[in-house]
Structure formats: structure tokens, C-alpha cells
Amino acid sequence: MIPFSDPSASYKAHKIEVDEAIQRVLDSGWYVLGKEVNAFEEEFASFHGENLHSVGVANGTDAIALCLRSLELGHGDEVITASHTAVATIAGIEQAGCTPVFADIDPVFRCINPQSIEDRIGPKTRAIMPVHIYGQPAEMCKIMKIAKAHNLEVIEDCSQAHGAEINGQKVGTFANLSAFSCYPTKNLGGTGDGGVILCRSFKLAEKIKSLQQYGWNEYRESISTGYNSRLDELQAAILRIKLKHLCNDNEKRRLIAQRYNHDFKNLPITLPTQKTNELHAMHLYVIQCEKRNELLKHLRSKGVGASLHYPLAVHQHAAYTNRIRGGDDLPVTEQFYQKNLTLPMFPELTDYCIEKVISNVQKFF
Ligand SMILES: Cc1ncc(COP(=O)(O)O)c(C=O)c1O
Predict the structure, then answer these.
(1) Dmax of the chain from CA atoms?
(2) Deepest of 103, 260, 273, 348, by most Cβ within 10 A of its Cβ?
């Protein structure tokens, strides 16, 4: 079966460097929050630009919660986001004690629709959390304008879009705070859980560093209630290597997407669209097809690991149904979830596998 994502291929592609880094950490005798984490934080921040700070954390869900907590947002504070996202986005918002509110998505680019954000703003709205879903940048210029007009915070969920750009500016740098997951399948993925926060303010970064360890100050006195959300040295050392290869790996993803787009262009499916002024991170290659279930079954029977991202939008999960404001008015999201289908996409996908995916999709029609 050709998988839709393959973290082991990423390890094999960088095996010598990764093995050396693992040995270095094991030999060091220091395993959590140390030199490697510090170096990763510096390298991750400067990858995104000047005068930025970053904090390595335990996972992307914690990164979201810590961003909100650092802004003193919590009980009663509403955060507008999309239901078309990983459940993790909503879990992170609720972990911080905030209340998620769902806005609809754009039918072509699949990210949160700025007009729908405006429609949902109410007296308790405090923040907007756009998700750069599948690697497609959300409409950050419009979103930042809305936030300014209504005095709202913006936290970008960049978990699927490491290295994506709008007009040469990397996602994660439009808002003051951004959360990234470094789960193994991500474009910047480790070999275990991991996450990172990007932030403009040194003071906020320091606050997050306190919150990630029980709210400690320098004397290990808890001055606020916090979490245990630390990045370990092994993950940091591996992520430093992956970061060096990220742009190249993203380019390989975009080239595979170009081949798919070219060979599928005459088929009755909707293809992911890329804007000319943007760099799509192409985390997932997701098409839309009327006969989605039949195509999924066909591809799996032919050894193509097509998948669904996701089988359900968040508001359709039992835990969230009828509970989240806005969840009863998401027509574009609901339509999308009847047709979405994910095809294999990762930088190490071989020509043979790409051809096999293409020919089996073509044979279906
Ligand atoms: C959009 C989005 N947000 C947040 C997360 C949370 O990341 P993690 O699984 O590292 O907690 C993920 C990853 O699953 C994600 O895809």
C-alpha cells in the first residue's frame, strides 16, 4: 500500500544526520529542554525572520493552549476558528479554557472565510485562530484587518503549513503568536510528539517558557498555574535537521502536486488550487469528487492509501455537535466533507508510486 504520508521515508532520507544527532544527545546525558532545544528555537525563529522568538513545547495542541494562556485568555473568551481542521485545534482552545466558535470556509481554498469570521464576531469574541489547512495559507491580510478593526488577537495555527508563504512572507509571522505541531507526519516532523510557538515579543516568549513548566519563575516558584509541556532534546536535535531540509522538501511536495494537477485536469474532480503569489506547503493533497466513497474504495483495492482529512468536520463529532456556536451554519464545510479525498503526498514519494496513484485515479473514471 502506498501510504498517504511516510515518516519513515523522511528518516531514511536523512538517516546519517539523524543517527548522528541521536547519538550526540544520548551521549550528552541531558534529555529535556537543553542545548538542542535552545538551538532549535533560535534556528526556527530566524528561519521565519528577524526579531522573532520561539519556544519548543510538547505538541501542537499545547502550543495552541499556551498561546491563548499567554494572552490571558480563558473562561468566557470566544475564539473564532474553522470546523474544517484537526480536532486538535479545538482541543487546544478548550484546554486553555476558551470557547471555540465556528466560521465557514472558502469553497476554493478551503481555509476560514473572512466574511464568515465577521459574521460570527460577538461581544465575547477575543481572538481569531486561522488554520492554514493542508498547507494552504489562510487569507491573513484580510484576517489581520478584521482583527484590528475589532481589537481581537490573532493566533495562526500553522501545524500543516511550515514554510508556506504569502507574498514572500512566511505564515506564522502575520500574527503576534503562532502555533506549530511537529508530529511525525507534519512537513516539519520529529520522531515523536513535539510542537513550537513563534512569537514577536520577547516578554510573551518568556511568559510561555514559564507557563510550559508549572508557571515557574527563575527560582522555580510557581507564580501562575501552568503546564508540563516541554520539548525533549532528541526531538529538538532531529527537528534541527529537518528544518534545514524543509524548503527543499516542500518544493518536492509542490512538484508532485503539479504532476497530479496536470494529469488529473480533465477528470471530473476538483483539484487543490494554488495562488500565484503564495507558496503552498502541500502538507496534504486533497481533491473533491462526487463519487468520493467509490473512488476511495477503488484506490485502496489497488494499493493506493487514499484517506480522508478528515472523515468528519469537528462540529460533526459527537463531542462537539450542538455545543459550539456557529456549528449549525457551515454549509460550505458540510458540502466539502461529502467530497474530500486525500491522495499520497510526501517528499520521498517515488516516480513509480506517483505514476501508480495517477494511473489508478485515471482508471476509475
Ligand atoms: C491543524 C492542526 N492543529 C493542531 C494540531 C495539533 O498538533 P499535535 O498533534 O502535535 O498536538 C494538528 C496536528 O494534528 C493539526 O493538524
Answers:
(1) 66
(2) 103
- Close Cβ partners of 255 (under 8 Å, ≥ 6 residues apart): none
Of 111, 131, 183, which is best to mutate to test ligand 1, by the most ligand atoms within 8 angstroms of its C-beta? 183
For the Cβ of 195 lying below 6 angstroms from any atom of ligand 1, the answer is yes
- Report the predicted TM-score, pTM, of the whole model to 2 decimal places: 0.98
The angle formed by the CA atoms of residues 357, 109 and 311, to the nearest 5 degrees, is 60
Ligand 1 mutation pick, 64, 160, 342, max ligand atoms within 8 A of CB: 160
Q: Confirm if 283 and 186 have CB atoms less than 8 A apart.
A: yes
Q: How far apart are CA 128 and CA 177, in angstroms?
A: 11
The Cα 33–Cα 152 span in angstroms is 32
Place of cell 516532523: 189
Residue 90 C-alpha to ligand 1 middle, in angstroms? 10
With a 6 Å cutoff on the Cβ, whether 93 touches ligand 1 is: no
Atom number of ligand 1 nearest to Cα 131: 1
Distance CA 313, CA 301 (A): 26
Q: How many CB atoms lie within 10 A of CB 126?
A: 20
Domains of the chain: 7-241 (3.40.640.10), 245-364 (3.90.1150.10)
**What does the pLDDT profile of the chain (365 residues) look like in tens digits?**
999 999 999 999 999 999 999 999 999 999 999 999 999 999 999 999 999 999 999 999 999 999 999 999 999 999 999 999 999 999 999 999 999 999 999 999 999 999 999 999 999 999 999 999 999 999 999 999 999 999 999 999 999 999 999 999 999 999 999 999 999 999 999 999 999 999 999 999 999 999 999 999 999 999 999 999 999 999 999 999 999 999 999 999 999 999 999 999 999 999 999 899 999 999 999 999 999 999 999 999 999 999 999 999 999 999 999 999 999 999 999 999 999 999 999 999 999 999 999 999 999 99
- Strands 195-199, 177-181: pairing is antiparallel
